[in-house]
């Protein structure tokens, strides 16, 4: 009879790759909106690309193009920061059933905006 240790290792080799695969964003140009605090939504594009195992994200809206930092893709959340002007904005977007992400972004002053990201069309 196999030891518990060997059974657990076997299960981890089956489960771990599936959980890692769920933690990747589709590379390409996502579309959506960025809604700054107390302002109307701006049409936006989000360019997602991979550099090895690192996810890179560029936000483009209102004539601005900014690189996100600290991008972290989790199974149900996308976390990142960006710096429009002097402020630092931290975003937590939740994965939706349609594979889009949406959620709140909060700046240094505690003001809150929202972002919606829809994946590239296949």
Number of strands: 9
CATH superfamily: Quinohemoprotein amine dehydrogenase alpha subunit, domain 2
The chain-level mean pLDDT equals 85
Order of strands in the sheet with most strands: 4-3-2-1-9-8-7-6-5
* Sheet with the most strands, sense and barrel status: 9 strands, antiparallel
- Judged by helices, strands and strand pairing, the structural class is mainly beta
Residues in β-strands, percent? over 45%
The end-to-end distance, rounded to whole angstroms, is 47 Å
Radius of gyration: 17 Å
What is the overall silhouette? globular
Compute the number of helices: 1
**How many structural domains in the coordinates?**
1
The quaternary state of the protein chains shown equals single chain
> Which percent range fits the helix content?
10-25%
Describe the model:
This protein has 122 residues and is mostly beta strands. The chain has a single domain (25-118), classed as Beta Barrel (Lipocalin), CATH 2.40.128. The chain has 1 helix and 9 strands; from the N terminus they run αβββββββββ. It has a 9-stranded antiparallel beta sheet, with no helix packed on it. A hairpin with a 5-residue loop joins strand 8 (101-106) and strand 9. The longest helix has 18 residues, at 4-21. Mean pLDDT is 85; it is low at 3-22.
């Amino acid at each position: 009879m196999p030891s518990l240790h060997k059974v657990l290792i076997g299960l981890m080799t089956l489960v771990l790759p599936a959980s890692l695969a769920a933690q990747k964003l589709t590379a390409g140009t996502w579309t959506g909106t960025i809604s700054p605090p107390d302002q109307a939504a701006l049409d936006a594009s989000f360019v997602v690309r991979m550099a090895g195992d690192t996810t890179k994200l560029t936000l483009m809206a209102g004539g601005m193009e900014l690189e996100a930092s600290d991008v972290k893709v989790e199974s149900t959340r996308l976390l990142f920061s960006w710096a429009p002007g002097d402020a630092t904005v931290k975003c937590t977007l939740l994965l939706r059933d349609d594979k889009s992400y949406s959620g709140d972004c909060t700046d240094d002053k505690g003001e809150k905006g929202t972002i919606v990201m829809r994946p590239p069309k296949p």
